[in-house]
Amino acid sequence: MITHVVLFRPRANLTEAERNTLFDAFMRVSCDIPSVQAARLGQRVTFGYGYESVPQPDYQFMVELDFADADGLKAYLTHPAHAELATQFYAAVDVAHAYDMVAIPDPTAALDQM
Question: What is the pLDDT of residues 54-93, one digit of tens each?
Fold first, then answer.
C-alpha cells in the first residue's frame, strides 16, 4: 500500500467560498477516482509535549490518500479531478509538503533501511 500524505497550512485570508471549493474538490477525488482506497482529512492538535516545540512549519491540516500500489497513485495523479484539486489547493495554501510513503508489512525489515 502507498499513502500519499499532504501537510499544509491554508492562506490566512482564505474565504469561505474558497474553502468550500477546495473541500468539494477533495471530496470529488476521494469519491470519483477509483484507485483511491481511503481518504482522510485531519487537523493538527497539540498536547504540550516537547516535540511540538521543535522549529518546523506550522502545518494545520493533513490529507492522507491510500492506494494499492504505484499504478493506483499514478492513476490518481494523472486524473482530471486531481488536476482540478491541485489548482484549487495551490491557490488556497501558504505552505505545503507532499510525501508518498509505502507501508512496510514487517517493521523489522525497515531496520535495514535506516
Answer: 878 889 999 999 999 999 999 999 999 999 999 999 999 9
Distance from chain centroid for Cα 64? 4
CA gyration radius, the chain: 16
- Which amino acid would we find at residue 22? L
Question: Quick one: which H or E segment has residue 2?
Answer: strand 2-10
Three-state secondary structure string covering 65-91: EEECCHHHHHHHHCCHHHHHHHHHHHH
Distance (Å, whole) CA 111 – CA 51: 23
User: φ and ψ at 19, to 5 degrees?
Assistant: -60, -45
